[in-house]
TrEMBL record, chain A:
It comes from Marinobacter daqiaonensis. Pfam families: Sigma70_r2, Sigma70_r4. This is RNA polymerase sigma factor. Belongs to the sigma-70 factor family. ECF subfamily. GO terms for biological process: DNA-templated transcription initiation.
Automatic annotation (TrEMBL), chain B:
Residues 122-189 form the ChrR-like cupin domain. InterPro entries: Anti-sigma_ChrR, Anti_sigma_zinc_sf, ChrR-like_cupin_dom, RmlC-like_jellyroll, RmlC_Cupin_sf. This is Anti-ECFsigma factor, ChrR. It holds the Pfam family Cupin_7. Gene3D superfamilies: Anti-sigma factor, zinc-finger domain, Jelly Rolls.
Length: 199, 211
């Protein structure tokens, strides 16, 4: 196993252990680090596929995501996203890709999934360091602790089961407005909502 | 600098990967030019990561890892960096000359180009609309929900001025009469959930900024 030295971690910045492992994969094609990432994230990705009705393709999605992680790891920049966030966006995109391939009829789509859904830190002209990005995952985790269960339930259905707000409303048998207000309250806590004008 | 942004709920649907391609395109075009919304999406992507991690765990057999390793071993060495910045979604779809597209002139100052067929298998209608610089579109409301991002130029209506990369959603309650600002022709990309209805006397014929 790759050792996770807290001293070293402090010296290198605000990296979490998973981000450190991912950097090792990117820099040195470190297979031990890659295996540690697999042990941690593969079950999450498998469950992610199962939660939205792709059970028969769940391990296939795990494979696609991990092959993609390996190939892209050289582009990973810990200053731009935590490893878990980066891996989530790859899982999301691979899932969309897989569904697009299954549904594709005849005509090829001129636009790739990644033209529409970006992996954080790739193809951006922004300055590398953004305190916001470094903080965002920690802040999210902190904020979630204080959210009522009913708000987390709605968010989980949106992210894990890929249900629209309308579908969540139907399933929980509550008005669409209630679903939206629960999400808004949660987003307020996460400071994602803004005054829409004059930002 | 954009002043009109997608709301947090729509950005969440985007981050979760739940939007259809035409809507995702509208969001992506806005994000490319709006650092503010990019940082909102960063937070939402982190939310996705935390949701993924909090769910009940399942086991994945080690044989899956072995299969992954054998695929990787067949890989050619990792590319150092992507060769060049890939073309954006918009130029892949439409080329680099928006003005040179085969616009269909409608009444007056408005031209339109339906690009729904670029999104096979999607439900929504996707339309480019062009209002000549300084031109006016007739008064209209919207029968469904129209999601629009400004690609070029700017237009103004009773809600304000919409500049390049601004994002706006109009629904049945929004009656408006857009006017393009002087300078460039105003070109917008709109995703329509249902056909529009006209309120003016002219109705019927028209178009996009109508439809």
């Amino acid at each position: 196993m790759t050792t996770l030295d807290p001293q070293n971690s402090r010296a290198e910045g605000r990296k979490d252990p998973w981000s450190q492992l991912l950097v090792k994969v990117g820099k040195n094609q470190d297979r031990q680090a890659y295996h540690a990432l697999f042990e941690h994230f593969a079950p999450q990705i498998k469950y992610y596929a199962m939660a939205n009705g792709m059970s028969s393709h769940a391990e296939e999605l795990v494979q696609e995501v991990f092959v993609s992680i390996w190939r892209r790891s050289c582009l990973y920049d810990w200053r731009k996203a935590a490893a878990s966030t980066w891996i989530f966006t790859i899982a999301r995109n691979q899932r969309i890709d897989m569904l697009r391939k299954m549904q594709r009829t005849s005509a090829e789509m001129p636009v790739e999934t990644e033209d529409l859904w970006q992996i954080p830190g790739e193809n951006e002209d922004e300055p590398v360091t953004s305190l916001h990005r470094l903080m965002s995952e920690r802040r999210v985790r902190e904020s979630l602790k204080h959210l009522p269960e009913e708000q987390i339930t709605v968010i989980a259905k949106v992210y894990m089961e890929h249900k629209s707000h309308q579908m969540v409303a139907n399933e929980l048998d509550i008005p669409l407005g209630t679903v939206k207000s629960r999400v808004r309250l949660a987003l307020n806590k996460l400071k994602v909502i803004l005054q829409d004008q004059n930002v | 600098m954009t002043h009109h942004h997608p709301d947090g709920l729509m950005l969440m649907e985007y981050s979760a990967g739940n939007l259809s391609e035409p809507y995702a395109l509208c969001i992506r075009l806005h994000l490319d030019k709006c650092a503010h919304c990019r940082s909102r999406v960063d937070t939402l992507d982190s939310l996705g990561a935390v949701m993924m991690e909090q769910q009940a765990q399942v086991t994945v057999s080690e044989s899956v890892f072995d299969r992954i390793m054998s695929r990787i071993d067949d890989d050619t060495p990792l590319p150092a960096k992507p060769a060049s910045r890939p073309r954006g979604a918009l130029s892949k779809l439409l080329g680099d000359d928006l003005n040179g597209l085969p616009w269909k002139r409608q009444l007056g100052d408005v031209s339109v180009l339906d690009i729904t067929d670029r999104f096979p298998g999607q439900q929504e209608q996707v339309v480019l609309q062009k209002l000549c610089a300084g031109g006016k579109a007739p008064v209209h409301t919207h029968r469904g929900i129209e999601t629009t991002v400004v690609l070029q130029g700017a237009f103004a209506d009773n809600k304000g001025v919409f500049n390049q990369w601004d994002f706006v959603i109009l629904g049945p309650e929004d009656e408006h009469k857009p006017v393009a600002l002087e300078g460039d022709d105003c070109i917008t990309l709109s995703v329509l959930s249902a056909p529009l209805k006209l309120t003016g006397t002219f109705t019927r014929l028209l178009n996009p900024f109508i439809r």
